[in-house]
Amino acid sequence: AQSVTQLDSQVPVFEEAPVELRCNYSSSVSVYLFWYVQYPNQGLQLLLKYLSGSTLVKGINGFEAEFNKSQTSFHLRKPSVHISDTAEYFCAVSIQVGSQGNLIFGKGTKLSVKP
Amino acid sequence: ETGVTQTPRHLVMGMTNKKSLKCEQHLGHNAMYWYKQSAKKPLELMFVYNFKEQTENNSVPSRFSPECPNSSHLFLHLHTLQPEDSALYLCASSPTGAATGELFFGEGSRLTVL
After folding, report:
1. How far is CA B27 from the centre of its chain?
2. Minimum distance, in Å, between the CA of residue A52 and any CA atom of chain B
3. Under the phi-then-psi rule, with left for phi > 0, alpha for psi from -120 to 50, and beta for the rest, what region is B51?
4. Share of chain B above pLDDT 90, in %
5. Is B34 helix (H, G, I), strand (E, B) or coil?
6. pLDDT over threshold 90, residue A84
7. Quick one: which H or E segment has residue A11?
8. C-alpha angle B70/B75/B77, rounded to 5°?
């Protein structure tokens, strides 16, 4: 069965500092990988996704993630965070079964950016 | 504005009440989903509909009853709920299956069961 582990439940960081949010997954088959963000009192919004090709994926708001198959990781990074990046970030994996596939989410990492 | 609208945004109900959550998408998508978001737990997929047909029921208790009258509307009927059912219920849509596509989420309905 597939699973997703987000190693940090909370990450506090100062404004303009770099940040890395960690995500590891387990799966016996090829997966698709996603990062979603949830701002306070809102639904989830896609940040970026890895389907195939280049292992370095760039997303919105200056975020990027790198797919590492040997380490089964898909860590999210940003070189310089802003106050507005304060939100909860969810890693998700999906496999395709026939014509269908469903996302499995991690528990989330709360990023808190302080001035 | 994601194109997925959920109502009501907040709902408080007693354990004997019957209420419904509504979701509407204006994106022309063919798949719709209900997720449950509880504190300190991963998002739990509840139901999936493709072209109005239910394709997944993730062992959800029968006190939750989904309805999908067309590809644009999705309901979650609630009856005789328990306090542990208090959570944020998120609706999402996608063009087809979720595997390679992006899910578009609504802002959620915050449910409190007294």
Report:
1. 17
2. 10
3. left
4. 70
5. strand
6. yes
7. strand A10-14
8. 140
Residue with tokens 């959570």: B87
Closest CA to A7 of A97, A107, A114, A95: A107
* pLDDT, tens only, B48-101: 998 888 888 888 999 999 999 998 999 999 999 999 999 999 999 998 766 666
Q: What is the DSSP letter of A62?
A: G
Closest Cβ opposite residue A102 in set B41, B45, B106: B45
Average pLDDT on B108-114 reads 95
Query: Residues A16, A115: contact at Cβ < 8 Å?
Result: no
Q: Are B102 and A49 an interchain contact pair (Cβ–Cβ within 8 Å)? A: yes
Q: Which one-letter amino acid corresponds to residue A74? A: F
Which residues on A lie below 8 Å from B45 (Cβ)?
102-104
Report the C-alpha gap between B4 and A106 in whole angstroms: 23
Beta pairing, strands A64-68 & A56-58: antiparallel
> Given CA atoms B97, B98, B101, B102 in this order, what sign does their dihedral have?
positive
